[in-house]
Amino acid sequence: MARSVGICLAGLGCRGSSWVIAGESPDPADAGSRLERDASATEICPTTAALDAQRAAANPTPSVDARHAGLWRGTLGGGAAAGFPSGDVELRIVDGGQNSLRFGASASAPSSLDPSRGYLCTESSDGVGCATRSGFVGGFAYPLESVVSRGEVLSFRMVGSDPWGPWCRLQAPLAWPDQTQPCGSAFGVGPVGSDTVGAAGCARVAEDGLAVAIDCELMYSLQRCRCAADACVAEYADILEVGLKLTDGLLGGSLWYADGFAAATVSFARP
Description:
Elements: E1 7-8, E2 20-21, H1 28-31, H2 48-57, E3 70-77, E4 88-93, E5 100-103, E6 121-124, E7 127-130, E8 141-143, E9 145-150, E10 153-159, H3 165-168, E11 174-177, E12 185-188, E13 194-198, E14 201-205, E15 211-213, H4 216-222, E16 225-227, E17 232-234, E18 239-247, E19 250-256, E20 263-269
Antiparallel strand pairs: 1-13, 2-11, 3-4, 3-20, 4-5, 5-8, 6-7, 9-10, 10-18, 11-12, 13-14, 14-15, 16-17, 18-19, 19-20
């Protein structure tokens, strides 16, 4: 199912109208007094390294009970299970290591990515859908964050947009004036405006009402990105909280769709 429309592009603020590709010299007629800013101000523009650090700082260091650690294989149940990429789920929990959750068999990384075309989003007569009905991508090892054991309960977070990360990093960030930001500019994957879907297809609508057509699959893919001055990364605001309880040697709980619409039961056992 398509996400709701009429929203701002991920990573964008809905104000202003001029924009340039980050790193290009702005037109003096548009830049105005911005050209008079101290050149050192550009040094404090956010970078993808800063975005990655910000994401890491928002998640505590993993703290895992030995009873939760290890490799687990699970099965989804209930009517909502059909919306996930696979009914088989693999969970890896390593205290201080690489924790992950994957639906189905491991998938190889794409041999090439085209930043000008949509990624993992498909347009059909029913609209635009990204990944599966649940919003999750099969074969992708979702990195787990905030992995913590509290008694019998193991909790962690998943970021739904993580599969788009490599594709997002190929996007050329766009910049526009924003004096509320430290370096006087904000950055995003497209011009300031909102995404809309109508009978004529998808478009970005600027504050002045001018609509610019855009491929629907590309538009929905770009919503999975946020940008800094040097590049873009996966949008990390779409977080799914998961809690699993250890009972008689099994980890059990629920996995929700990325949009919170439905949930499937899940039971994990050690292989």
